[in-house]
């Protein structure tokens, strides 16, 4: 199935690392001084928009839920709280999704990239600590959006959309891939099954298609 692709783009949260529950906890802990009902509205938005950055989600919380403006100083305080919670909990080898890592090992002769909604510097640090950095030519994240980061890879001639695929677990991943004519594969989210290609397990692909 992947034989025709020279470049493979991976989402991170929920695809390489089982980090989504900790992301949810991070928002709850960071916003624990705000009304519980409002925070739950943000959690619902967060879980429905897994590929969006924390910057977009905090912006949505204050502008659309609380309907107030948040100054940059206070926003930076919240972002730092969230960052520290992530670093405390995500540098854990037990969170690595083995199914994906086995596939990544088999595909390491291709050019591989991570494009994530997570903060870019934090993401690179986590990958370095978990010994994942070595597999990827570039690891890109927010504050740029996934679409902006894909455009950047195309402009830098690091990927050819016709020879690339993107593996993700959110509708945001699907939208980012299809906008640039990149083949999308859904993974670890059954709601994506109606969007075309869906990977139940990379082990199935190894057994049936000679992955790698």
Task: Please characterize this protein's 3D structure.
- This protein has 212 residues and is an alpha/beta fold.
- The chain contains 9 helices and 6 strands.
- It has helices at residues 20-30, 36-48, 54-65, 72-90, 98-106, 120-129, 146-155, 171-179, 202-209, and strands spanning 7-10, 111-119, 138-142, 164-168, 183-187, 198-199.
- A 6-stranded parallel β-sheet has the order 3-2-1-4-5-6.
- Helix 6 links the parallel strand 2 (111-119) and strand 3.
- Helix 1 packs across helix 4 (72-90) and helix 2 (36-48) crosses helix 3.
- The radius of gyration is 17 Å and the shape is globular.
- Mean pLDDT is 92; it is low at 208-212.
What's the N-to-C terminus distance?
9 Å
Mean pLDDT: 92
Shape summary: globular
Question: How many individual helices?
Answer: 9
SSE class: alpha/beta
Largest sheet: 6 strands, parallel
CA-atom Rg in angstroms: 17 Å
Q: Roughly how much helix do the residues carry, as a percent range? A: 40-55%
- The total count of strands amounts to 6
Q: Tell me the series of helices and strands, N- to C-terminal.
A: EHHHHHEHEHEHEEH
Unreliable spans:
208-212
Going across the biggest sheet, name each strand in turn.
3-2-1-4-5-6
The proportion of strand residues reads 5-15%
């Amino acid at each position: 199935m992947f034989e025709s692709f020279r470049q493979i783009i991976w989402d991170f949260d929920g695809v390489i690392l089982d980090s989504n529950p900790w992301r949810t906890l991070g928002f709850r802990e960071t916003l624990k001084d705000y009304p519980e009902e409002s925070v739950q509205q943000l959690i619902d938005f967060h879980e429905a928009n897994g590929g969006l950055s924390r910057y977009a989600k905090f912006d949505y919380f204050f502008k659309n839920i609380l309907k107030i403006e948040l100054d940059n100083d206070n926003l930076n305080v919240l972002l730092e709280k969230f960052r520290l919670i992530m670093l405390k909990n995500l540098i854990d080898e037990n969170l690595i999704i083995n199914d994906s890592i086995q596939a990544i090992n088999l595909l390491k002769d291709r050019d591989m990239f991570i494009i994530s909604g997570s903060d870019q510097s934090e993401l690179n640090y986590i990958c370095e600590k978990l010994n994942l950095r070595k597999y990827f030519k570039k690891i890109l994240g927010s504050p740029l959006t996934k679409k902006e980061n894909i455009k950047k890879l195309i402009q830098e001639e690091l990927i050819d959309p016709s020879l690339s695929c993107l593996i993700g677990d959110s509708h945001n991943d699907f939208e980012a891939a299809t906008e640039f004519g990149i083949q999308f594969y859904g993974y670890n989210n059954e709601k994506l099954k109606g969007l075309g290609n869906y990977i139940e397990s990379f082990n199935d692909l190894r057994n049936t298609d000679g992955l790698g």
